[in-house]
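Posting this for the archive.
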Amino acid sequence: MSRRIRPAAVRAAVLLHASLLLAAHAAAQQPPGTPAPAPAPASPGQPVPRLPLVPRTPARSEWTVRISHDFDQSWLSAPETPEASAAVAGMRKVRSIRFSKDAQTQTYRLLTRWTDGTSEEEWIVAGLHVAERAGGRGLYVVGSEVATTRQLQVTDFPELAWLDMNYYRGVETFRGKPVFTFSVKFDAKPLAADEARFMEMARRRDPSATPTKVFKPKVSEVTVHLDAATQLPLLYNDGTTLRRYSFQQPPGSAPLRPPARIADFIRQRNAALKAQLTPPAGPGDTTGG
């Protein structure tokens, strides 16, 4: 998963590291309750991210997104542990999603782990999204109302599609490494399609509704940290969901292929579809010789 690091950007980030630590120390000396200053645009002379801001991962790659819906600001400095993303008691929520990607074969594997200890595996093969029904009750094709397949054709991180340089705040240090930081007030962040639909319904009931009133985020500022070397995401905190990203080396160099039961399901489904689309032979059809 390594990428070529631009020496100029890294040297500038290292020089900034010391000043950032001094600024953090000064902030720690402020009296309790002192409000944090509003984020300012990046200072002139700081490293500037390359475009696209969030690049595609390598053609053969794997990464994990650890997710929490029940957190506060202490999450930002807490160590990563399996228990760290436990959801509210009694509620089943996503704990993590592990993505495996093979761009050459147009194949993705999504392994979702839930807070109740269960897991679900999905495959996207040449645009066909196959999942298994709850309790192992057979395979099915995920409907077009789920946009995962369409989104992954454009970006590996659709949740960050709204990100642009208007929200860039400069270089910071996160978990010991320089990062490009982006932030925006929750009410000013562009909404995803499903969020926009929800807001539209909310405003029909209450014209004064705002995203903060509707979604009730735990933080007022949406924050994104991108690795300064690769520009792949490390953290995305929008106050309703906290995502922490880690990247793994794919096992071996073999192409990513679905297991036999998935491949057989796709083959049978395609054969049945072809049969449905083939017109029946008419009484005067002599194509059979």
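Residues 1-39, 84-89 have pLDDT under 50 and may be disordered. The helical segments are 7-28, 148-152, 193-205, 211-215, 260-277.
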